[in-house]
From TrEMBL:
One of its GO terms (biological process) is L-amino acid transport. Pfam families: ABC_tran. InterPro entries: AAA+_ATPase, ABC_branched_ATPase_LivF/BraG, ABC_transporter-like_ATP-bd, ABC_transporter-like_CS, BCAA_Transport_ATP-bd_LivF, P-loop_NTPase. This is ABC transporter ATP-binding protein. The lineage of its organism: Bacteria, Bacillati, Actinomycetota, Actinomycetes, Nakamurellales. GO terms for molecular function: ATP binding; ATP hydrolysis activity; branched-chain amino acid transmembrane transporter activity. It comes from the Bacteria. It comes from Nakamurella aerolata. CDD domains: ABC_TM1139_LivF_branched (cd03224).
């Protein structure tokens, strides 16, 4: 379903991404305490969790921006644990970063071109195909292709950031909070487009605080809390899971007067009593 890559063996039935016991630290402070997750070819998988849970850290480690202190990352059957960030881009792991990262002085078209040149392709046809896909997903970007990226609205810049990532023809697209800071109508639109990108065959790992939207559109999801995965399951099933509803979907306050109840008494090991653990998830951005 994704474009062939000469460096990659074609595996079938195996996960596209497989993370085992991944620990990541900032200096002496461990942010991820050994998480495991998989993303299968064609899936849309979401990471949900409160502020500081380790979602962005997970994405950066997958991109190769942060080194692992232990554990393994397998991509398409190949151990990439020690692979450099640019090599991972070449292999097709493409992240649209948190906070968009649009080049403000460049036009929309130039921003998209930068995305394409991040990865080597054989022919102009690859470029044309990628550009056509982006402009058909985001007609707005076509209209504004000569406008400077920095003068676009927040929603348009988010579209540009996703479009730029798509220009690299990702085999795995990493999206970190694409809905952040956007108006509800734009959020809806961004989520619809993410679903469409996935339905076109692109495998996606998404980080979102908008749990309702994300879970309803995801094949599977992982719930993270203070550097651990505390729960995983099918997106739509998690949507109706009582502990998930209470902690992440803004319901449960009506089930009693005790609104001070700790978040997510979810299955599995909840991260130990570190300072952050008592924090109520702030997911209602
Ligand atoms: N550059 C850094 N240096 C030191 N600690 C960091 C750094 N970035 C993140 N952390 C810490 O690592 C932990 C995980 O942070 P991370 O940014 O991955 O969380 P997150 O789930 O993405 O949160 P948010 O929802 O706020 O984006 C937090 O305790 C955070 O304070
Ligand atoms: Mg984050």
């Amino acid at each position: 379903m994704s474009q062939p890559d000469p460096n990659q063996p074609t595996t079938s039935g195996d996960p596209l991404l497989e993370i085992s016991n991944m620990a990541v630290a900032y200096g002496r402070i461990e942010a991820l305490h050994g998480i495991s997750l998989t993303v299968n070819p064609g899936e849309l998988v979401t990471l949900i969790g409160a502020n500081g849970a380790g979602k962005t850290t997970t994405m950066r480690a997958i991109s190769g921006i942060l080194p692992l202190s232990s554990g393994r990352v397998i991509f398409d059957g190949r151990d990439i644990t020690r692979m450099k960030a640019h090599q991972r881009v070449a292999a097709g792991i493409i992240q649209a970063p948190e906070g968009r990262g649009v080049f403000p002085g460049m036009t929309v078209q130039e921003n998209l071109d930068m995305g394409h040149y991040a990865r080597k392709f054989d022919s102009k046809a690859d470029y044309d195909e990628a550009l056509e896909r982006v402009y058909s997903l985001f007609p707005r970007l076509l209209e504004r292709r000569k406008q400077a990226g920095g003068t676009m609205s927040g929603g348009e810049q988010q579209m540009l950031a996703i479009g730029r990532a798509l220009m690299a023809r990702p085999r795995l697209l990493l999206l970190d909070e694409p809905s952040m800071g956007l108006a509800p109508m734009i959020i809806q639109q961004i989520f619809r487009i993410i679903s469409e990108i996935n339905q076109q065959g692109t495998t996606i790992l998404l980080v979102e605080q908008n749990a309702q939207q994300a879970l309803s559109r995801s094949d599977r999801a992982y719930i993270m809390e203070t550097g651990e995965v505390i729960k995983t399951g099918v997106g739509k099933e998690l949507l109706v899971d009582p502990s998930v509803k209470e902690a992440y979907l803004g319901v449960g306050a009506d089930s009693g007067s005790d609104t001070s109840r700790a978040a997510a008494p979810a299955a599995g090991a909840v991260a130990g009593g570190a300072a952050g653990a008592a924090e109520r998830p702030d997911l209602r951005k």
